[in-house]
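F.,

This is the one I mentioned.
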């Protein structure tokens, strides 16, 4: 059984969903430390052929070392309408903007916790891509540990024989050596950008939010364009 474990992020890049598609179980790593101004609360879209960040404001004054699932959204800032308007401004003329409108409906529901909002978005997008991978949260598991030890213990608890890791984690995982000489094999997901036709641009802008892919290619294209790409 192949497992992937990733922190919940805001409208993640296309590779995140490729990982979900390539495993038998996907685990949201939601009970590790929150990193301010990271992908956990922001991502990039294309605005007039340039990169622009969308950031969810959070309450962190006087709060240190919060876990991701403990972080509250600062809903007093009216950020939802700002994000909706910028996404509409950026993508309303794109071929598959109608697919984007389904995602925008999530902004109409007030969520207290950041991870509740981001996880709901990710799960919905995965379903619209036709993915049926079972998804759980690490906070729901009776497992403990630090860094790669925690990842290993999660894999062990869910009876995974293989762990598919994000390429960016390779350095610390191999440095700590927890997976060495163990019964769980580890492979690393590609970090190269997934190229697709982007409307109205002469040069491809890589690593944008999945929103950009959906606006350009639509939900239905995911299986034919992305799933045949090797995950290693």
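My design for it:
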């Amino acid at each position: 059984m192949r497992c992937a474990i990733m922190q919940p992020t805001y409208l993640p890049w296309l590779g995140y969903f490729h990982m979900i598609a390539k495993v038998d179980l996907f685990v949201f790593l939601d009970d590790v430390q929150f990193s301010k101004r990271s992908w956990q609360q922001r991502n990039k879209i294309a605005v007039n052929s340039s990169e622009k960040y969308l950031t969810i404001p959070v309450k962190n004054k006087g709060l240190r070392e919060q876990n991701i699932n403990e972080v509250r959204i600062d809903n007093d800032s009216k950020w939802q309408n700002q994000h909706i308007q910028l996404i509409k401004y950026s993508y309303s003329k794109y071929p598959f903007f109608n697919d984007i409108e389904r995602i925008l409906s999530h902004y109409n529901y007030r969520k207290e916790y950041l991870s509740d909002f981001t996880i709901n978005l990710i799960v919905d997008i995965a379903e619209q891509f036709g993915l049926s991978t079972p998804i759980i949260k690490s906070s729901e598991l009776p497992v403990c540990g630090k860094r790669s030890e925690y990842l290993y213990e999660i894999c062990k608890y869910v009876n995974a024989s293989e762990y598919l890791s994000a390429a960016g984690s390779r350095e610390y995982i191999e440095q700590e050596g927890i997976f060495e000489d163990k019964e769980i094999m580890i492979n690393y997901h590609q970090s190269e950008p997934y190229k697709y036709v982007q409307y109205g641009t002469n040069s491809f802008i890589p690593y944008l939010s999945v929103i950009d892919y959906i606006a350009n290619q639509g939900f239905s294209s995911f299986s034919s364009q992305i799933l045949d790409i090797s995950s290693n």
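The radius of gyration is 18 Å.

Talk soon.
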